[in-house]
Amino acid sequence: MTTTTTAPPLLSLRGVTKTFGAVNALTDIDLDVARGEVVALVGDNGAGKSTLVKVLSGVHAPDAGTISFDGRPVTVADPSAAIALGIATVFQDLALCENLDVVGNLFLGQERGRMRLDEVSMEVRSWELLQQLSAKIPTVRIPIASLSGGQRQTVAIARSLLGDPQVIILDEPTAALGVAQTAEVLDLIERLRQRGLGVIMISHNMEDVRAVADRVVVLRLGRNNGSFDARSVSSETIIAAITGATDNVVTRRRERVGGGSAGASAAAVDAPADEEATR
Fold first, then answer.
1. HEC per residue, 186-199
2. According to the model, what pLDDT value does residue 275 have?
3. Phi-psi region of 143 (alpha: psi -120 to 50; beta: other; left: phi over 0)
4. Looking at the structure, do residues 158 and 205 belong to the same domain, yes or no?
5. Distance CA 97, CA 86 (A)
6. Is 231 a domain residue?
7. Are residues 41 and 150 in the same domain?
8. What is the chain's Cα-based Rg?
């Protein structure tokens, strides 16, 4: 008799809840991320996406529920604990210093050397990280101010790899980027998947989601509202889950206006990144 075992998810949340006073920002959230999987986290403004990211990155402590990493329960007490566990987060603002070059930004706060900086070691490691991502950056000594939006996103992702994470959270990685720069970032996400990392990607852009995600997890009003295969689910189904409508309502509305409503709904999904109601 042959017994087969299934590996646990790399990252698993069960019943995660977070409140701010009378506001329930997250209620009983479940989420799994496997190795080499890209999970798109979508939802309307105030759905709880930013709060969930902050829980995973150690900014907020959950009030209830469990977080497991590689099959064992863990406590993400603060951002340092998240990094030590292997969870890296690239926030939307990137937090790059324009007056510093690529090396300076990659090692900001993590400089090598005691009495004097080990510039050679940091430069070599910077090149290694950028090469892993097949980055289109001419030199690691170029100032951040000279880089495009896509190149800056690359530097931010490369910086997150310094601690050899197993899960990377990307908060609106293609927001405000042009077509070519967006393609570069989506290629980076694909390379992270190929390296076996688990990726959580927050996005309002369904085209980007379909391009790289394996699954789409929808949050609505701080709760789970569906998990779908990214390559087979319809836009109407995702929009219905985000808005709380039914497929029939969305379809009838589209038919009534001759297809225009679906486009309007899709545009709503591409709204600016959410600021939680709790802020």
1. HHHHHHHHHCCCEE
2. 44
3. beta
4. no
5. 24
6. yes
7. no
8. 20
User: In which domain, by residue range, is 171 found?
Assistant: 11-86+165-269
Contacts of 52 (CB under 8 A, 6+ apart): 16, 26, 29, 31, 41, 219
Residue 182, in any domain of the structure: yes
Of the candidates 244, 39, 53, 277, the one whose C-alpha atom is nearest the C-alpha of residue 265 is: 244
Where would I find the beta strands (DSSP E) of the chain? Answer: 11-20, 23-33, 38-42, 64-69, 72-74, 87-90, 167-171, 198-202, 215-220, 223-229
Whole-angstrom distance, CA of residue 218 vs CA of residue 42: 5
* Cα–Cα distance for residue pair 133/138, rounded to 1 Å: 13
Alpha carbon distance 86, 49 (integer Å): 20
Give yes or no: residues 112 and 146 share one domain: yes
Phi, psi of 38 (to 5 degrees): -105, 115
Residue 59: predicted pLDDT: 95
Res 254: pLDDT: 58
- Quick one: pLDDT at residue 85? 94
Domain of 68: which CATH number? 3.40.50.300
Tell me the mean pLDDT per 10 residues along the chain, length 279: 68 97 96 97 94 96 96 94 94 90 92 84 93 89 93 92 94 89 92 95 92 96 96 91 71 56 41 43
Per the confidence metrics, is the pTM higher than 0.85?
A: no
Last residue of one domain, picked from the residues 116, 135, 164? 164
